[in-house]
Amino acid sequence: xxxxxxxxxxxxxxxxxxxxxxxxxxxxxxxxxxxxxxxxxxxxxxxxxxxxxxxxxxxxxxxxxxxxxxxxxxxxxxxxxxxxxxxxxxxxxxxxxxxxxxxxxxxxxxxxxxxxx
Amino acid sequence: xxxxxxxxxxxxxxxxxxxxxxxxxxxxxxxxxxxxxxxxxxxxxxxxxxxxxxxxxxxxxxxxxxxxxxxxxxxxxxxxxxxxxxxxxxxxxxxxxxxxxxxxxxxxxxxxxxxxxxxxxxxxxxxxxxxxxxxxxxxxxxxxxxxxxxx
Lengths: 117, 151
What we know:
- The structure holds two protein chains of two kinds.
- By secondary structure, chain A is an all-alpha fold.
- Chain A has one domain (2-111).
- Chain A contains six helices and no strands.
- In chain A, helix 2 crosses helix 5 (64-81) and helix 5 (64-81) crosses helix 6 (85-111).
- The termini of chain A are far apart.
- Chain B has helices at residues 2-17, 23-51, 57-77, 80-88, 90-93, 96-109, 115-122, 124-150.
- Classes of the chains: A mainly alpha, B mainly alpha.
């Protein structure tokens, strides 16, 4: 069941991205920024958790999940340490993903050569 | 005036030359490839929880993201992810693997411009705006949340 929901919701979210690409010729940087913002807004209004309950990976794997963790981290940290949390919480919650992406990119850039050109 | 007319004609010429992505097949492909990437994420998460039953949901999910990011980065390195991207469009951009690809791809492509000015700088051409917008908006949300909590 989890797989089915993950597939359907995840597929739907990606298809919305593709619709944006076709209709507005939006670049991939803008797509990613838009979906991160959607995640932040969903989390800010506490709508992300209810969706995540049944969609699981379907909403967490899309970059919406990254935006939601940023906002969730900031909100959680504000709750525990006050205003400073607005600055520390977001990156703390997403540090693993960002560091992994940067670290692996650096590692593989040393190993592999560009395939195009 | 003349210049404008020429530009218009040129724009039409460019428009005609741009490879047309067929709308319906690309929607279908983005749907099933994006869905499949999410299913793989779900599978990795379940596998981790199965192998390490005492791990918290949150930690298992963090590991899942690290694994997905690793896979996307590796597939970018061997040139496979860009092929998936051409086929699936939004299906490969929107998942977190697309974020990983957006960092790895320029890092590898601009390697020849040097480690610092090539790899390290170009790495953030797409991820930079994503991180900036994400961080700034999370700060705003945090501050609003703090103000609301005062009352």
